[in-house]
Design goal:
Aspartate Aminotransferase, domain 2, 7-stranded mixed sheet, Aspartate Aminotransferase, domain 1, alpha/beta, globular, about 10% strand
Amino acid sequence: MPFLSTTLARVKPSPTIAVTTLAGELKAKGMDVIGLGAGEPDFDTPQNIKDAAVAAIAAGKTKYTAPDGIPELKQAICDKLKRDNGLDYTPAQVSVGTGGKQTLYNALIATLNDGDEVIIPAPYWVSYPDMVLLGGGTPVTVEATLDNNFKITADQLEAAITPKTKWFIFNSPSNPTGAGYSRAELKELTDVLLRHPHVWIMTDDMYEHLAYDGFEFATPAEVEPQLYDRTLTCNGVSKAYAMTGWRIGYAAGPEEIIKAMRKVQSQSTSNPCSISQWAAVEALNGTQDFLEPNNVMFKRRRDLVLDALGKIDGITCPTPEGAFYVYPNIAGLIGKTTPKGVLIDNDETFAKALLEDTGVAVVFGAAFGLSPNFRISYATSDENLKEACKRLASFCDGLS
């Protein structure tokens, strides 16, 4: 009799672990490693949010809370969704989890049955397919092509829907591409979903406030109110508020789903950290003045990286509308060989050779379901980005 769960056999180890481990080993040996893999802002958490956490500690707000969030945070989330997205929710329709990942996971575990299909546009955040598999569902990937700036079309979505489809997971702006769907592009997708009332929509709006060049964020239930009753709108404070380590994510949707998610969370982790919850109240209710200056810095970094990539033969990269990633395509480099004799036969080999030869750590595209590409996170200093791009260009120029 096997000791480990057969459910665990459905999922694979994180495909980014090998590169991360190698980067750590090389750094320990003294190599100057520049990490461009971290999916988190390098900015510090704003001072008013930190002060709110300290005040919560001083006030003794250090006990258990309701399993899925304090009333004050749920109300702050309702106020935010009304203010920013024009969506009306009550606190009973809100669930707070330990980061956005737990919120998505709770929803999938609470709703999936064997044979249920979940449509996931690729490239995707690495955890989506495996969370679906852990829930007993079947991930159905739809490839967003380079020609369409890594965005799927209405026809592709229509073709992927079957009687077994339960969820459509939608992430804009995207991790790993930074691609953002305009309101018109999103309306084309929601028109498809209107024709299939058995399909529910799960949004991942984590990068909502990270948008550039006049791109205006929109979320499905906002664009098509008729989808409100079968949409779970998910978000969090990790990215825009530089609070990745505080671990607060949230979802708003029909009470039936929220109650089921609460049941899962009450029997797994119970409540998110009480101090982090009070910090998140301040993040959502307090000043938002830092968002625009941060975006100005992120846009400058994005443009710096795009300019450097544009000068490298064999690399193609569209301009992303948001987040803090670019997703260069390296089709023009496949088949070439490094000076050490390593054949670049796929993007994982490329990322490994780049790291070993130059100390620049990126995440290979196969981890996100679309190759041959790699992801750069430009959430680091201008100096790091300039040096990393210099090393990347030298590495690519040296391929033959």
